[in-house]
## 1
Amino acid sequence: MMNAPLSLRPRHRGLSTTAIVYLALVAILVIGAVLVALSGRNLFSNANIVDLLTRSSLLGFIAIGQTLVILCRSLDLSVGYVMALSSLIAATTMNGEVSRIPIAIATALAVAAVIGLVNGLVVTKLKVNAFIATLGMGLIIKGYLDTNYAGPAGDVPEAFQAFGFTRIGPLPLSTIVMFAVAAVGIWFLHRSRTGHHMYAVGGDAEVARMSGVRTDRTVITAHILCALAAGVAGLLIASRFGTGSAAVYDDGYDLESIAAVVLGGTYLLGGRGGIGGTVGGVLILATLDSVFNTLSIDPFIKDVLRGVIIIAAVAIYARRSLTGAPTRRRFSERPPEPDIPTQPDDTRTEAADTGPAGGRT
Amino acid sequence: MTSGSGISARLRTITERVLSGSATVFVLLGLIVVVISVLNPRFLDPTSLMLFIKKAAPLVLLAIGQYFVIVSGEFDLSVGSLVGAQVVIAALLINGVESATVPVILGMFVGGALIGLVNGLITTLLKVPSIITTLGMMLVLYGAIRWLTGGAPTGALSENFRVLGRQGIDDVPFIGQIPWALLIMVALGIGAGYLMRSAWGRTLIAVGDNERAATFAGARVWWVKTTAFVLSSVLATAAGILLGGYAGVTAQVGQGLEFTAITAVVLGGVVLGGGRGWVVAAMAGALTVEALFRLFTQLNLPSTIRPTAQGLIIIAAVAYAAVDRARRQRTSTAIGTPRHSDVAS
């Protein structure tokens, strides 16, 4: 099944994965708009756009953090629980008083960071598989939440609820913040040393280590940043709901964020991808939701469609990497370059130009 | 170190490694059983033990299936939703009619195998990471369950359907009743053990350890992986039949079982990412998880705190096994088994 003719196929050249993600987003927007228009409504009505962007901000924060962790070839399944915990800590600390907002934000984020630190330490020092480590961490937090918070708790003052409800034109403030965080994240990955190390560690931890990268520290940093991002999502929950809510962990944000990251073209086994694509992936999922809602499709069918679309999209990316390059080429035939991937999105293409397709795993 | 003695030394360290990973789970299982029986001596009564087995059997079957998939380097997140879908659909179709039991059960197995085939083919031929494939399948199946039931399951299972999960061979001296679930579990366990010793099983492990090398060695990677997915789904179907029989029909049946099954397999010392692990240890892992739940009941822990304890124990057990493995590796590198990926830190 994996054979030589692959290399003879015409290749999609010149398009980075991120570009494909945004093309897919545009395609889905167009198809969605046509379908919605056929049913006599307008997908781009103000209310719909606000709804779409609001949806994407929450998942966006989590998925941005998840991208960093996945780039390091790790995984974080505890984000949903961290989000719920952070919303509760923020809301109960604020307790309706404006003066306590800063301390509440600081506490919530500090707790999130500590959880990320523990995740990172367990993964790197105790060498527990990230899947199990973060799943276990999620269970631990779940137990704490279920025991201590039977229902919504705390009271968020109006001033902080503004974070969830303020809009500048059609753009919700939370979405602007999310885009800002994404921009910082993109800068971080492409320009900072730690960002480059993340690609290196995800590409091949052993090679990175021998090149002098402190791999453990990099992975731990990614986990802390991921938990912090989930903490911010929790703050957003608190500001939207007006209280902290433990129930949000049941909404499947952990798996959905992974889906968004992968939909955004980031390679699940680390080392390739980026936050730009992830934001595209988040917008795709949010668009789907908006389209389904405006068409008032049965919520149960919605899940089915979403599952099928995620699989199909990832299959298309995989096809692309099939025709382009081996799924994972750790030791490519090209001459050794500095291990800093200058344009991570392009590594695939470069490898394809020099490597035969037959050596794919 | 390519001489014959080098290879045998390597084989020895590999066996040692497998045993070290598995030893943890057997010790842990023994420990938990001892603690439970100290707290409640009647736990060791045959009747009570058999009851425990009946309850644990579905998870053991799921663990066997999940083992096949994990050891080949993949994940199957769809099993929990598959169990749920199978039970709910069976109840819908049987609706209390005894004569419908056998055809429906056959249909369940065919449907289960098809789901596994789809999982496997999408993962292997379309190159979609199995987490995403089976996650998508999970969304599809959960959607299907809720769409079919509208939230509350309808219909009922027949008495015959529930025999396998509930009944057993009665009036056995000393023991009282040998549950069918126990016999099924043991039979499937022996079958799985033999399967892993067959050419197929060895190829499966080789594929999980190093897919590329296995490809070059001529293994049909897509075939072994796809069959692993099919086996996982078929075993999930069997688990569904036992679970439906034992616990009856609710819309929640099966929820979260995929994570519990993965936990069980990993507790059994099977390495996520493939290539290492013993199926019997995976089964013991499932028994350990169930024993743990039993212990929590025994301790009268508030049900809300159980996840915390569960999470702590899983991380601790896996960390122990991983650190132990790393230590062994460090000492065994002297014999000549430096593994590229294990030298880190």
## 2
Amino acid sequence: MIQKKICMLGSSSVGKTSLVRRFIISIFDETYHTTIGVKVDKKAVKIGAEDVTMVMWDIHGEDVYQKMNMSYLRGMSGYLLVADGTRRQTLDDALALHERVVLEFGKVPSLLLLNKFDLADQWEIDPAQTSRLSAAGWNVLHTSAKTGERVEEAFLQLAKMTLSE
Amino acid sequence: MAEQAQRRAPMAQAQEKSTDNNHAYEELRHLIVAPETEGLAAIEERLDNLEKRTCDVSEVVAEAIQMRSAGGDQALADALAPTIQETLRESVRRNPHVLADALFPVMGPAIRKSITETLRGMLESFNEALDNSFSARGLKWRVESMRTGKPFAEIVMMHSLLYRVEQVFLIHRETGLVLNHLVAPTVATQDPDLVAGMLSAIQQFVRDSFKSKDSESLGSLNVGDLEIWIEESPNAILAAVIRGHAPADFRQVMNEVLEDIQRYFSSALANFKGDAGPFRAADERLSKLLETRYREAPATDQKKPRALMIVGGIAAVLLLGWLAYSTYLLVEWSRFLGQLKKQPGIVVVGYNKDGRTFHIQGFRDPLAADPKKLVSEAGLDPEKADLQLAPFYSLDDEIVARRAEKMLHPPSTVKLAAKAGELTVEGSAPQQWIAKLEERAPLIAGVTGLDESHLVNSNLQQLLNIKNSVETVVLLFPLGSADLEDGQDQKLAEVETRLRELQSQAGTSGQSVNVALVGHSDTTGIEGTNLVLSQQRAEQIRRLLFRNGVKRELLRPTGVGTTQPLRNEDSEEGRQLNRSVTFKVSFAPIGAAGATAATTNAHPAGPAGN
């Protein structure tokens, strides 16, 4: 069995916690987010014959009240960068955060999740930009924590990427 | 130099020689002394100039203080103390915040630590004391405390530094992923992956939040009676979850294990890619940490149950015995109560058990059985019986009979019985007692009726016996004579004895008695003569009996002549029997009409005959 440390990154209220809630094993209360800024959950997936335990570090989104603690990212095998598709700003913030991560930890397998796709009518990110991101090497997935759309797929895909590292 | 040259020129013009000498001397002096003079002037100026002096001292003051302190000289501290004290006081007076702010980072933790340590020590000894006070081990320790004069808490602490390492985590330091996790038997755990992740997150959180150096880390966490001890090596974190209070050297053991693992698995740790497989081999090393809990625990774990089992066993046996005995007593007492309730003359209205004493409340007729004796007879301890029986008159048949007996003193020939208030008297008794019975029976409590149908008056019986024997006697007379035939004296004497008996019996039996002496004659001769003769014969017998002590008024002589022949006169024997006197005894209760009638009827009168 292989274990991988995976981080969930993104601004606050983009739905990181909701995204994993239905797909993970959790024993900790969500107040951990606001106290120490991270909550550790677990997601087991099967990639081929390999059982992979993804230990998910759901890191509190950066906001005016709380700065993200970069040291929580140490030793991660990959991360999910999450943005709220109905709020353009969160994508910019996510990409900025990504820059910081790359600067500090180098290139690490990652996926960009544009979440809240169930609210497609309020979408603020135009397809042209999505294409640009894809062209820049981003693996972009439109997810919905509410309907569960493509969430499982996102985890599996990231797990695969970390294994092939 | 230019100035000196100008000065020298006019002097040379005025005094050629001497001036030359003086000048040379001055010059020499100047050459020799000038440096010293200048030096002295400089020193003088330094000493006089306060600013310069301050400057000089400031250059060496730190070194000077250091030098003095290094020599272990207390004088400096003594000298500075008043000034420093005064300075602090002044500082606080002016603005207390300055000093408070400066001391805050030191004071807070120091005070907290001191309070925490004190409280923890107190709590621990208190808990231990509670735990140990009631065990066999606790007693032993108490004795030891008394013997050594040390406080009990100290003895407890000395003996019971018990702990149990419940879980051991080997965590990859960088990723926070679990490399190995061991759990002591019977310990419930949470998902180790998550716990380890969170633990390393907390570790990083603490490190970042309190800006400690990377090499410094959280050494332990306390949660209730759980402690989590954490040791770090370059690539791994070793965390032990300990219940209780582990000794300080356990940290040393942890360190050794971690160092060993770091050494042995160094490349596996450095190249860790998420596969914890290789670290299964660390099981043995890590289990050493779990085993530490057995160091002290087994001794007490075994002793305690054994001591407990023995004490418990004894307690159980005692309890069972006590229960059995109590039950037995209870059963015996209730059986006794049943018996007591059946006792005539005793009424039980209530009872209760108080400790070992059995209280019984009720009533008892003084003639009822002795309850204390009943208690003994039931096999119970009379001392344990508290009998509160108030006296009363019982109407129980048996008690009424007993009461009647007590009041009537019946002769042994009489049997008394009571049934529903009616007193039945059986047997025979003298008239006198019967009279007393009739008089007293209605006065006896509980007696409402009297049945004498089976009671015989013994005096009357005797009277009847005498009557029967006397009435069979026939005293014979010769033909035509009123004197007894020869050989009749014996019969007469017998009659005399009987009649005397009758006399005395009549007195005690309350009967008036009279004896008719009936004179008879045979049919020979003239009828008139015969009647007289028969009367004479009766008179003759009365005389004889009276002479021998039979009361005159008892005897009523009468002659019936030939009117009441004893036999027909077909033979001489028959005629002889009719020449006789016979007896007729009659009695009646004094005052009854019958006796008087008999007396009057029996009055004799008339002439003699055959």
